[in-house]
Amino acid sequence: MHGYELxxxxxxxxxxxxxxxxxxxxxxxxxxxxxxxxxxxTPEGDERSRRKQEYRITAAGEDDFLALLxxxxxxxxxxxxxxxxxxxxxxxxxxxxxxxxxxxxxYLEDRLAQGERALQRALRVRADTxxxxxxxxxxxxxxxxxxxxxxxxxxxxxxxSEDREPSDSxxxxxxxxxxxxxxxxxxx
Length: 188
Fold this sequence. Notes:
Layout: H1 3-14, H2 22-35, E1 38-41, H3 47-51, E2 54-57, H4 59-69, H5 81-86, H6 94-124, H7 129-162, H8 180-187
Antiparallel strand pairs: 1-2
Helix pairs in contact: 6-7
């Protein structure tokens, strides 16, 4: 697809968590093309469509994409990156999804413990009402996220035990196609 359509698709899928500007999209596409993970394609059709630069992912790009999604190092657990990664979970094997969800849960449990300790300290020193309210809000947020992850983990474990991928009737999109590019085309 061309840059405008790519930005539109990303905004629809990630709009609440991630924004993509044209100022960052086109330079990124050039870098990705230079690395060989996307390639320009010549669009078919009328003269106007030929002037638009269209891109598609290469086999090397699919491999890189899956490797990035499946990374397990600590830097990939940053707050803003998890929702982005989760938006593309359908491309990962169930065992990798489960490991990533469990790692995220562990990370949030650590953050929850830190938040609860900080809240207890604030209560002991009689911190102001707003500081305590903000800390409670943070602790509640971690608890809610952990509960949500528990549901996702239980669903993944059930799928693994049944040895099946998500279907169209499940909460998660289908991931049985062989090519990322073909998956996108069949889902659109």
